[in-house]
Amino acid sequence: MDKLFINYYEVGAVILFGIGFVTLLLNNNLIKKIIGLNIMDTAIFLFFIAKGYIEGREAPIIVGSFKGVNKYINPIPTSLMLTGIVVAVSTTAFALALTIKIYEKYGTIELDQILKKGDE
Asked: Which fold has domain 2-119?
């Protein structure tokens, strides 16, 4: 139980991922599915950034003298998450553009109604 309180960022990320996953699976509305996907993305970013942080170390911005490698955190997880954020925003924009086109064609964004209209 103590590990839950120590790793509360990771626990929060897992809970957020679960909320996003359930939202993605249980809703028929395409906008809600996109929101669920974004919640999952955010949870993954939070998890990796929390894992990349080391207590007592500083950001790798050298001001003055170099303090040694063990005094700075690793910048790679943060830079990878910045890349992931750009990809997530691009994917969201593409999914929303597709949703607009689907709405123009079928007149709805409810997945079950779209599937019924597609069978006709």
From this structure: Helix Hairpins (1.10.287)
Beta strands in 1-120 (DSSP E): none
Rg (CA), the chain: 20
Question: Which pLDDT tens digits describe the chain residue by residue (120 residues)?
Answer: 666 677 788 889 999 999 999 999 999 999 999 999 999 999 999 999 888 777 777 777 888 888 877 888 888 888 899 999 999 999 999 999 999 999 999 999 999 998 888 776
Q: Which two tokens stand for residue 48?
A: 């990796």
Residue 54 region, left (φ>0) first, then alpha (ψ -120 to 50), else beta? beta
92 CA to centre of own chain:
11
SS3 assignment, position 17: helix
Delimit the domains of the chain by residue range: 2-119
In one letter, which amino acid is 104? E
For residue 14, the tally of other CB atoms under 10 A from its CB is 14
